[in-house]
Amino acid sequence: MDRSKNFTHELPEGYKPVKEVDVGDKRFGLLMNVAGIVLTALAGVGFFFLKFRGDPGSAFPDLGNIWVFEGWLFALLVGLIAYLVLHELTHGVVYRILTGEKLTFGLKLTCAYCGVPNIYVTRKAALLSLLAPFTVFSVAFLVPFFVLSGPVSFTFLVLFALHFGGCVGDLYDTILLLFCLKGKLLMRDTGPKQTFYVLSDGEGDA
C-alpha cells in the first residue's frame, strides 16, 4: 500500500488554516456535549417507538427485582466503557493502516480522543478515520437491536443511542469535510483538536 498519498509530514506551500475544531475547549466542548445529548435522545426515542410501540413495557428489565436491575446496569456500564475504548481504537486502526504513523490517545473532561498529531492527512484519509467508528458500531448495535427482543434488545438500543450522540464531533467534522470546506485540503488531528488547511488557490481536491 502506498501510504504516502494519504498524508504529508510537512504542510505544503500554499495551504492556509481555515477552520479549527477543538472539543478540548470548554465552551465548544460543552456545546458539542449538549448536541450529543440531543442526538442521543432523538435516536433513543425514535428507535424505541419504532420497535416497542406495541408493547413498551416488554423492553425493560425487571425493575421490581433489584438484583436483576443492578446486574443490568453493571453490564451496561461495562459495555459503555468497552465501547469508549473500542471507538477510539477504531479511529486509530484506520489511521494506522492509512499512514503507519504514531498515534496519540487520551481523555479530557469533554471528550476521549485519538489523534495522529505529527502529520497532515488528506480529506479521504480524514473521512475514513472519522466515519469508521460510526459505521462499525452503528451496525454492531442496530443489528442485535432489531434481531433480538425484550431487555436485551433494549440494551443494544441504549448503547446505540449513546454511541450516536457520542459521535457528534466526528459527524461535525464530516459535515465540514463533505459540504463546507472546498478545494485541496489537509487536516492535522491532535486528538481533541482538528485543524483544516485549504490550498489558497482553491483548485482541485485532495
Q: In brief, what are we looking at here?
A:
With 206 residues, this protein is of the alpha+beta class. Helices cover 56% and strands 18% of the residues.
Write the layout of secondary structure elements.
Layout lengths: L6 E2 L6 E8 L3 H27 L13 H34 L4 E4 L4 E11 H25 L2 H17 L1 H13 L4 E5 L3 E7 L7
Antiparallel strand pairs: 1-4, 2-6, 3-4, 4-5, 5-6
Give a written overview of the molecule.
56% of the residues lie in helices and 18% in strands. It is α+β, with helices and mostly antiparallel strands and 206 residues long. The chain has one domain (3-51, 65-199). Strands 1, 2, 3, 4, 5 and 6 form a 6-stranded antiparallel beta sheet that branches. β5 and β6 (193-199) form a beta hairpin. α1 (26-52) runs antiparallel to α4 (150-166), α2 packs across α4 and α3 (123-147) packs across α5 (168-180). The longest helix is centred in the middle third of the chain and has 34 residues, at 66-99. The two termini are 18 Å apart.
Strand portion, in percent?
Answer: 15-25%
How many H/I helical runs?
5
Largest sheet report:
6 strands, antiparallel
* Terminus-to-terminus distance: 18 Å
